[in-house]
Amino acid sequence: MDPFSSPPPSGSGEGPSNEVVMDQVKQQLAQAYAEEFFGTVRDKCFTKCVTRPSTSLSGGESSCISRCVERYIEATGIISRAVVTSLPR
Amino acid sequence: MDASHASELQYFLEQEKQKAVLNELVGKLTDVCWDKCITGTPGSKFSSGESSCLTNCAQRFLETSSLILRRFQSLQQ
C-alpha cells in the first residue's frame, strides 16, 4: 500500500507507521538516484567509448564501456571522499 | 498522529534531504571533474595523476564556489 496516496484510516488507529513511511521514502529515493546515475554513466561512457557508431558495438567498444563504468563508479567514490573532507564542520 | 510520531518523521525527512543535497553535489562534481580529468580512454585503473586530478578538481570547485559567493555578497553591500 502507498502511504502517500491513501489517507490514514480514521478511527482504526494511526495509519501507516513511521517505519513503513520511512522505508518507502528510502526506497523511492534510492530508485530515483539509481535511475539518474544510470543515465549519467550511460551518457559519459557512450561519449567516450562509442566515437563512431557502426552497425554493432565492437568488442573494443564493449570493453571500453565496462572499464568506463567501473572508473565512473570509482571516480564517484574519490569525489565523495574529497567533498566530505572539505565540508565545513 | 501524535507529536512525537510527527517529529520523528520530520527529523527523518530532514536527514534524507541533507543526504540528497550531498548526493546531488557529488553527482555534479563527478560529472564536471570526469570531463576535466579523464581525457583519454578509461583504463583498467586510474593513473595517480587522474585520481589526484579528481580530488583536486572537487576541492577547487568547492573553493571556487565559496569565492564567487563571497564576491557576490560584497557586491551587494
TrEMBL record, chain A:
Subcellular location(s) of the protein: Mitochondrion inner membrane
Pfam families: zf-Tim10_DDP
SUPFAM superfamilies per the UniProt record, alphabetical: Tim10-like (SSF144122)
Membrane topology according to the record: Peripheral membrane protein
Entries under InterPro entries matching the protein: Tim10-like, Tim10-like_dom_sf
Keyword Transcription: no
Superkingdom as given in the UniProt entry: Eukaryota
Organism: Sphagnum troendelagicum
Main localization (coarse): mitochondrion
Presence of the UniProt keyword Endoplasmic reticulum in the record: no
Note on domains (UniProt): The twin CX3C motif contains 4 conserved Cys residues that form 2 disulfide bonds in the mitochondrial intermembrane space.
Family per similarity comment: Belongs to the small Tim family.
Protein name per the record: Mitochondrial import inner membrane translocase subunit
Gene3D superfamilies cross-referenced by the UniProt entry: Mitochondrial import inner membrane translocase subunit tim13 like domains
Annotated Tim10-like domain residues: 24-83
Protein's job: Mitochondrial intermembrane chaperone that participates in the import and insertion of some multi-pass transmembrane proteins into the mitochondrial inner membrane. Also required for the transfer of beta-barrel precursors from the TOM complex to the sorting and assembly machinery (SAM complex) of the outer membrane. Acts as a chaperone-like protein that protects the hydrophobic precursors from aggregation and guide them through the mitochondrial intermembrane space.
Keyword terms: Chaperone, Disulfide bond, Membrane, Mitochondrion, Mitochondrion inner membrane, Protein transport, Translocation, Transport
Subunit structure: Heterohexamer.
UniProtKB/TrEMBL annotation, chain B:
Subunit structure: Heterohexamer.
Keyword tags: Chaperone, Disulfide bond, Membrane, Mitochondrion, Mitochondrion inner membrane, Protein transport, Translocation, Transport
Job of this protein: Mitochondrial intermembrane chaperone that participates in the import and insertion of some multi-pass transmembrane proteins into the mitochondrial inner membrane. Also required for the transfer of beta-barrel precursors from the TOM complex to the sorting and assembly machinery (SAM complex) of the outer membrane. Acts as a chaperone-like protein that protects the hydrophobic precursors from aggregation and guide them through the mitochondrial intermembrane space.
Topological relation to the membrane, as annotated: Peripheral membrane protein
Protein name per Swiss-Prot or TrEMBL: Mitochondrial import inner membrane translocase subunit
UniProt domain Tim10-like: residue ranges: 12-74
Compartment annotation: Mitochondrion inner membrane
